[in-house]
Amino acid sequence: QVFLVEKAGRRSLFMAGLMGMLISAVAMTVGLVLLSQFAWMSYVSMVAIFLFVIFFEVGPGPIPWFIVAELFSQGPRPAAIAVAGFCNWACNFIVGMCFQYIADLCGPYVFAIFAALLLGFFLFAYFKVPETKGKSFEEIAAVFRRKKLPAKAMTELANLRGGEEA
């Protein structure tokens, strides 16, 4: 997994995982809706579940931990990771506690809610999440500020990288 992250990049794997999960959630919804008409739709649903898990393990499972660790400098990093962990487990708890009630309410369309959320997450990642592969904290922070690094910092980065242009 780490080799794949270093080779493909965090953002691209995250977005590929989200899109794969979105397609899998739509396939699960279609499979559940058409199950009463076509018995073979149970196989579609099963394959969609396996693909959902695979895409989660490629992108949205591990990648946020890489990104959180790289978005914050050494001082606030432990607090940021603690907040990210709390949010992660709180959302897992909420989904775990509420899923059965939502499934009872929505029937076979329960995964359409996940598909809609995944579309929102994908759009957010596309427009707001920078690629952090091979970038220093200063470069990532500059992306968020939407301006270039000062000339002095650019020179220092070039010197650290062996004289190549930053």
TrEMBL record:
Subcellular localization(s) per the UniProt record: Membrane
Record membrane topology: Multi-pass membrane protein
Keywords from the named record: Membrane, Transmembrane, Transmembrane helix
Principal place of residence: membrane
Entry's Gene Ontology cellular component terms: brush border; plasma membrane
Top-rank lineage group of the source organism: Eukaryota
PANTHER family per record: SOLUTE CARRIER FAMILY 2 (PTHR23503), SOLUTE CARRIER FAMILY 2, FACILITATED GLUCOSE TRANSPORTER MEMBER 2 (PTHR23503:SF27)
Protein name as catalogued: GTR2 protein
Lineage start: Eukaryota, Metazoa, Chordata, Craniata, Vertebrata
Gene this chain is encoded by: Slc2a2
